[in-house]
Design goal:
- The chain is an all-alpha fold.
- The N and C termini lie far apart (about 25 Å).
Length: about 100
């Protein structure tokens, strides 16, 4: 997949984008934005909505990026995923249960 296949591509300003290239090849500076879809993917209650809205291919990219970050990612990325997992979703989940 490529960045322009993401529905958020035109309005996204994230420095870390799993759709662009491997997250391990990207550099992150403290305070920079991380892909919103990747952060939402960390929340167990949002996976059904994300899969329905973005499709299984994009969710596979998010799963691979998550695995890479958890095993080999730098502290800033790992902590961003941990923070995201501990907060509630900002998505409307009506009809996705």
């Amino acid at each position: 997949m490529s960045t322009n296949q993401c529905p958020r591509y035109q309005r996204c300003s994230a420095a870390i984008c799993p759709m662009w290239r491997s997250v391990l090849e990207q550099k992150m500076v403290k305070g920079e934005r991380v892909c919103g879809v990747l952060l939402e993917y960390q929340k167990p209650q949002s996976k059904a909505f994300l899969t329905t809205y973005y499709g299984p291919e994009m969710m596979q990219v998010m799963a691979e990026a998550t695995d890479q970050i958890k095993v080999h990612g730098v502290y800033l990325l790992r902590s961003a995923l941990t923070r995201a997992a501990s907060t509630g979703t900002r998505l409307s989940l009506q009809g996705c249960d």
